[in-house]
Automatic annotation (TrEMBL):
PROSITE patterns: GLYCOSYL_HYDROL_F3 (PS00775)
PANTHER family: BETA-GLUCOSIDASE
Domain Fibronectin type III-like: 742-817
Annotated SUPFAM superfamilies: (Trans)glycosidases (SSF51445), Beta-D-glucan exohydrolase, C-terminal domain (SSF52279)
Designated name of the protein: Glycoside hydrolase family 3 C-terminal domain-containing protein
Record carries keyword Hydrolase: yes
Family under the similarity heading: Belongs to the glycosyl hydrolase 3 family.
Organism in which the protein naturally occurs: Gryllotalpicola koreensis
Length: 828
């Protein structure tokens, strides 16, 4: 039975109890709420991480342009969350792909606000229908990773409303999201420059005030820096905990009259409401539910997919995008392929998920080799890496590592501030590079390891370290740093890919060589992320092997095979939370590999294994190119299905693929004097390319699939429907010989008034909606899109509201952002 909670209990509830849970508060009838990342699966909060279904990356989901498809994946996320005891999933990311170098581009849906919002709505409704909450993130302006906890996002007001806030507005009004995450960065908006966690105008004013959000605003992890400002600005829950700027300090601020108790109460009510929604409130919540609104009536829960693997397999194939297909080289008929040369660094080591908080421990991985062997059982298959694309060596084989006494593992001694031993020396398995949970009085560590190498050839041995250190290999000083590490090494992800010394050791036939490693380093205190010693041993056996010979071997395998399948792409050194990319080129000599293989075999298919755009200089010179995303655990099956056509790869790009770096309208994400200026305004993504008259390698919305399509002239209704939408109908004919999936995109153009009296700006063309549909060969279907009034409106800065500029509008039904398509013009 709930009693009256004390102020202490209420304030305590407003900071996490642990990294991913809130406090249970019996006086309020509340159990702890468990939060967990993230967009591609449930990371879970147990250590070691439990296994969980691993989806393709979010841009791949958006590439289906299909709400029903997204909803099926959302339902799976909700069901996985329940299975793993997670109440609120820290997803989806609805920041926009403003620049192709953005570090978390792969975690976002699209460069377009409508595709982002629609995909998000389908996902959120499906997750929440399972009784699991979402946390839509990162509110707002977190389009860059560089200096992400510091920079000010300066977004012109019209663009802020129409582009960057729009998906969050849909999350509240259309999807009824139960929580929203306040971003790391600062934002200039509404005359206020403040940390996103403290932003009174954005949180209290827009999100909770204008839009009526009744859920919880959760801080990004360690993002909150203030007590009073954040409390008054509208933030409800500081994560992670314990610690941080609230707790006792907030209690003191209430006592001092700086924060009214009613502000605390409102946050408590919101957290209680969230607990109630996710089934973590016992009996307190009757009156709280008065805040429920009809808008967030969840969709009907989906039935659990009987076969998770089958769903993920289908998702990989369906989301893949055919970028080129000369002479209908694809799909491949397994009966006509006697031999396959499978080539490329990402064929050998597929990159199935991006780095950072979105990381999921999948139960298994179907590799491209597995998938192709199943799909082409009669074909002879050879595999060649061709070229290396990595900067770092791989995690070492623990078998190679012993202590000085010959025990498997390395020795870790922890020292206090005086250099005295804390506890006994430990022997740690070589696979364990983090050494978490280090005692509070330990300040530094001495690590010693012996690496024994006996395979003939050149070996690269390296150690990844975080923070202040001195390192010796075989008694020789190899690295020194006096750069102190704290929680920032988590926030900038450098602790995930720690740099450090490396050496190359030549081992002759019959010889054994030993590398003695000694490291003296700091203990990293990463606040609520804990205290650890980072020591990652890495090793590559084929260091400095003859790179040219490796490439030649791949090329001759290609020329000897019926079909060459080259899988190129990025890897987790390239695409991760915590940093932005510097370049858009494929790492290493992959472009050369593709060109050489394609020259050697006229039946070459190139598969691109990346989440974010990369420059493909050979795109129009090879016969077939398939974009395969970061496909998750069913990678190889999905790939094989797409290549054979067992499932049509009917994806369409949710972003623009540049031909050269120089063309990119927003080429970087680097703050200048601490400010990221969104100077392009509303011209994000393809809108910017259009405005500048630049032609990309493939436009937004592009994807060939395996169909052949014809569009009729769209017919627009004469009047608005009662639900404030304008129905537009178009006939879509499948002129091909296969049943296929068509995706029709509707773009608008309308009266522009750049810096005119209306005080608003307009893209040349903008997406208003879309429809995807399976169509039998030779058949025609009528597709109707109900275009919402908002798609025609602009945010008027002068009037501080949405207005519908009158005039002529062209509605274009098209297959991508540059396709002239078929149009109808209406007057509004
Ligand atoms: C990320 C969030 C994530 C959180 C918790 C942060 O670093 O920005 O997206 O949900 O960590 O893991």
């Amino acid at each position: 039975m709930a009693s009256v909670p004390s102020l202490e209990e209420k304030v305590r509830l407003l900071t996490g109890e642990t990294s991913f849970t809130s406090y249970a508060t019996p006086s309020l009838g509340l159990e702890a709420i468990t939060f967990s990342d993230g967009p591609i699966g449930i990371r879970g909060i147990a250590e070691p991480a439990p296994t969980a279904a691993q989806l393709p990356n979010p841009s791949a989901v958006a590439a289906a342009w299909d709400r029903e498809f997204t909803a099926r994946l959302g339902a799976l996320i909700g069901q996985e969350a329940k299975r793993l005891g997670v109440d609120v999933v820290l997803a989806p990311v609805v920041n926009l792909q403003r620049t192709p170098v953005g570090g978390r581009h792969f975690e976002m849906y699209s460069e377009d606000p409508v595709l982002t919002a629609d995909t998000m709505v389908a996902f959120v409704r499906a997750v929440q229908a399972e009784g699991v909450g979402v946390c839509v993130k990162h509110f707002v302006g977190n389009e860059s990773e560089t200096e992400r906890t510091e920079y000010v996002a300066r977004i012109p007001e019209q663009a802020l409303r129409e582009v960057y806030l729009a998906p969050f507005e849909s999350a509240v009004k259309r999807a009824g999201a139960w929580s929203v995450m306040a971003a790391y960065n600062r934002v200039e908006a509404g005359g206020e420059i403040a940390q996103a966690t403290d932003h009174g105008f954005l949180i209290n004013g827009v999100l909770k005030g204008e839009w009526g959000f009744d859920g919880v605003v959760v801080s990004d992890w360690l993002a909150t820096k203030t007590t009073v400002e954040a409390a008054l600005g509208g933030l409800d829950l500081v994560m992670p905990g314990p610690g941080g700027p609230w707790e006792q300090k907030l209690l003191a601020a209430v006592a001092a009259g700086e924060v009214p108790e009613s502000v605390i109460d409102d946050k408590v009510v919101r957290i209680a409401r969230l607990a109630q929604r996710v089934g973590k409130a016992t009996d307190a919540a009757g009156e709280l539910s008065a805040g429920e609104k009809g808008l967030d009536t969840p969709a009907e829960p989906a039935t659990r997919p009987s076969d998770v693997s089958a769903l993920l397999r289908e998702a990989v194939a369906q989301a893949s995008v055919v970028l080129r297909n000369e002479n209908a080289m694809l799909p491949l008929d397994p009966g006509s392929v006697a031999s396959i040369a499978l080539i490329g660094p990402n064929a050998v080591e597929p990159f199935v998920q991006g780095g950072g908080s979105a990381f999921v421990n999948a139960p298994y991985l179907v590799t491209p080799e597995d998938g192709l062997r199943e799909a082409f059982p009669e074909a002879e298959l050879t595999m060649h890496r061709g070229v290396s694309s990595r900067r770092f060596a791989h995690p070492i084989d623990p078998e190679l590592v012993t202590t000085a006494d010959g025990e498997p593992g390395y020795t870790l001694e922890l020292l206090d501030a005086d250099g005295d031993l804390v506890g006994d020396p430990l022997v740690v398995p070589a696979s364990e590079g983090w050494n978490r949970g280090v005692a509070d009085d330990a300040r530094s560590a001495v690590v010693t390891a012996r690496v024994t190498l006996s395979t003939p050839g050149a070996h690269r041995v390296e150690a990844g370290l975080s923070g202040i250190h001195t390192a010796w290999f075989d008694g020789e000083l190899v690295s020194e740093s006096d750069e102190f590490a704290d929680a920032n090494v988590i926030l900038d992800s450098s602790a995930n890919h720690p740099i450090g010394p490396s050496t190359v050791v030549e081992v002759a036939d019959g010889e054994t060589k030993v590398v003695e490693i000694r490291v003296e380093c700091q203990v990293v205190d990463a606040a609520a992320y804990g205290r650890f010693v980072r020591f990652e041993l890495r090793h590559d056996a084929e260091a400095q092997s003859d790179a040219d010979a490796e490439l030649e071997a791949a090329v001759s395998a290609a020329s000897a095979a019926d079909v060459a399948i080259v899988i190129v792409g990025t890897n987790e050194e390239v695409e991760s939370e915590g940093w932005d990319r510097q370049r858009l080129a494929l790492p290493g000599r992959q472009d050369e590999l593709v060109a050489r293989v394609a020259a050697a075999n006229p039946r070459t298919v190139v598969v691109v294994n990346a989440g974010e755009p990369v420059i493909l200089p050979w795109l129009d010179e090879v016969p077939a190119v398939l974009w395969w995303w970061l496909p998750g655990q069913e990678a190889g099956h999905g790939l094989a299905d797409a290549l054979t056509g067992a499932v049509e790869p009917s994806g369409r790009l949710p972003w623009t693929l540049p031909a050269t770096e120089a063309d990119v309208p927003v080429p970087d994400a680097v703050p200048v004097d601490g400010v990221v200026e969104y100077t392009e305004g509303v011209h994000v993504g393809y809108r910017g390319w259009e405005r500048l008259g630049r032609v990309p390698a493939r436009p937004f919305g592009f994807g060939l699939g395996y169909g052949t399509w014809r569009l009729g002239i769209p017919i627009a209704a004469e009047e608005w429907s009662p639900d404030d939408t304008l129905p537009v109908t178009v006939a879509l004919t499948n002129d091909g010989e296969r049943d296929a999936r068509g995706v029709v995109q509707f773009y608008l153009s309308g009266p522009t008034d750049v810096d005119g009296d209306g005080g608003w700006d307009r893209p040349k063309r903008w997406l208003a909606g879309y429809a995807a549909q399976d169509v039998l060969a030779g058949r025609v279907v009528a597709l109707t899109l109900r275009i919402p009034r908002r798609a025609f409106e602009v945010w008027s800065v002068a009037a501080q509201r949405w207005v519908l500029p009158s005039g002529e509008y062209t509605i274009r039904a098209a297959s991508d952002a540059r396709d002239p398509g078929q149009t109808v013009t209406i007057a509004l």
